[in-house]
Amino acid sequence: MLAQLALRALTPALPLARRFGLLQESVALWSRGLRQRKAWAEHHARCRRLVAEVAAELPQHRKTVILGSGFLRDIPLNALCQGFDEVVLVDIVHLPPVRLRLLPRRNVRLLTSDLTGAMAWLAGEAEGRADPLAGLIADEAVDLVVSANLLSQLAWPVADWLEDHPARAAALPSDMPARCIAWHLDYLSRFKGHVYLISDVEMVERERDGAIHDRLDLTYGVKLPPEDESWLWPVAPFGEADRDREFVHKVCAWRDFQGSRSPRLASGEN
User: Is 0.90 surpassed by the pTM of this model?
Assistant: First the structure.
C-alpha cells in the first residue's frame, strides 16, 4: 500500500488522468502485475515474441509507435530499440519505474496522451473529441504501429465515468464506450506504416467447478475482422479478485490490421 501511494505521488499525470481514475488504476495494475508475474508470464512473452516477429519482417525500420505502452511488459523493448531509429511510447500515464528504465535509451521518446480523444469532451471541457494521433498518422517515417493490449482499456474508463455522472451522460451519445473503440480502429486504419493489433476481446468469469458465472464483450459490440491467432490470459486467477472465481480474458492478434477489413461505427462522428 505504501509503495502504491508513493507511485501515485511521484507520477506526473494529466489532470484528466487523475479525474478519470487512470493514475490510480495504472498503479493498481502495476501492483497486480507484480503479484501475478507467473500467471501473466506466458501472455507477456507471447506478445513480445509476436511484436518482434512482425518488426523483423518489415523492409524499413525508421520509427515505431507503441500505443498503450504501459509498463512495457508486453513489448520487446530491447529488440525495438536496437532495430529502429526511434521508438515512440504513447500512453496516458508513464509510471516512474518505466521512466527510469528508459533513461539510458537515447532513441526512445515518451508521449503522454488521452488515446480516447474524448475525456475533455466527457468532462465538459471541449465541444467534441480530439484526434490524439493526428501528428503521428501524418508522420511518414512511422514504419510500425503496435496497439498493445489497449483497445478494451479505452472503453471501461468512459463507461465507468458515464455511470458515475448521469447528468453529463444524458447530454452525450449513449454508445460512447463503443465509439472509443471504433475511433481507435479508424485511427489505426489511417496509418501508412504497418499496423499490428493485440487486444483482449472477451472476459469470462469462471467458478472453481468450471461453471461460467458471467461473460463480457470487451469490444462493446464493435465488430473486428477475423484474428490471426488467439489465446487465454488469466487476468485475475482464483484469489486475486475473488476467492472462488477467476477472470480469464481472450486475447486476439492481427498481424496486419490494415490488411483486414477495418470496422467503422455507422454513427461514430460527434
Answer: yes
